[in-house]
Automatic annotation (TrEMBL):
GO cellular component terms, A-Z: ATP-binding cassette (ABC) transporter complex
Function per UniProt: ATP-binding (A) component of a common energy-coupling factor (ECF) ABC-transporter complex.
EC number: 7.-.-.-
Residue ranges that the Swiss-Prot or TrEMBL entry lists as coiled coil: none
Name listed for the protein in its UniProt record: Energy-coupling factor transporter ATP-binding protein EcfA2
UniProt topology in membrane: Peripheral membrane protein
Keywords carried by this UniProt record: ATP-binding, Cell membrane, Hydrolase, Membrane, Nucleotide-binding, Translocase, Transport
EC class (word): translocase
Family of this protein: Belongs to the ABC transporter superfamily. Energy-coupling factor EcfA family.
PANTHER family (UniProt xref): ENERGY-COUPLING FACTOR TRANSPORTER ATP-BINDING PROTEIN ECFA2 (PTHR43553:SF27), HEAVY METAL TRANSPORTER (PTHR43553)
Pfam families linked: ABC_tran (PF00005)
Subcellular location, principal: membrane
Amino acid sequence: MGIQFKNVSHEYVGIKTKDEAIININLNIEGSGEFIAILGHTGAGKSTLVQHMNALLLPTSGTLDVFGQILPPKKRERINYLRQKVGLVFQFPEYQLFENTIIDDIAFGPKNFKETKANAYENAKKAASMVGISEDLYQKSPFRISGGQMRRVAVAGILAMNPNILVLDEPTRGLDPLGRDEMMDIFKNIHEKENKTLVLITHDMDIVSKYAKRVVVLKEGKIVFDGKKEELFIHPNFKDFNLDLPTPLKILKYLEEKLGIPFEPKYSKEELVEYLKEAKLWIIK
Ligand SMILES: Nc1ncnc2c1ncn2[C@@H]1O[C@H](COP(=O)(O)OP(=O)(O)O)[C@@H](O)[C@H]1O
Ligand SMILES: [Mg+2]
């Protein structure tokens, strides 16, 4: 189960031009346990790709299998239920808040997916606690809280539907460094505690390096890399992907060059600091 793309292309038909946004995509995503980062420049096709995962967009050629549902669907086949299975958090999701209270906004999704009212609010409260929205905020207006909190409410609204796969389109964009780390720790928790598959679009290589297990790189609508994070940074074609190296790897390369500290890949600030503590002893000796 999970999601399988088979030769999927998507062409936006505009007034003047036809624009093939993703081309011949073959991609398998497991229904649990994955943490995938989707990388690529603006216009590479990332958003188009992920909107196929819950049938917001349908392939113009090729097929998808999303938890057994074949897309494009047969005539009159209902596919709305896929929005519950694969939860998609858009860029700037806080723009889509609209209810009078925070808790009503979070419960909107499950109410819509035919949960009983009691269950919907039960799910909403659980989701609120997962994103660190405390009970005293439930009855507040979602428009009278900080930007970071608004985004967490929007994420909770998707979590409340208990999707198998959570897809996040640039969830840390526009957040300050602290807000960014808090948001990522929320996702890490969801991934670890509930074993949910996470698919994350980001431009932030430090986030990729610290959190992702697998990376898919898109270039001009095509997949140019799909593999383990550890393999990406040492890939012979890495330069062609036009990606930056994550900060810990940059620092380690520099230290090797300038101080001869042996290069050993580290993927987060925390791992880097641990390694440098040892390296310091090594220099003094
Ligand atoms: N609604 C749309 N109509 C027409 N073209 C679109 C639309 N959305 C995206 N595109 C085009 O499809 C290509 C891929 O866009 P997108 O999937 O948004 O890339 P990314 O998310 O990587 O920035 C771009 O050339 C973009 O201009
Ligand atoms: Mg995009």
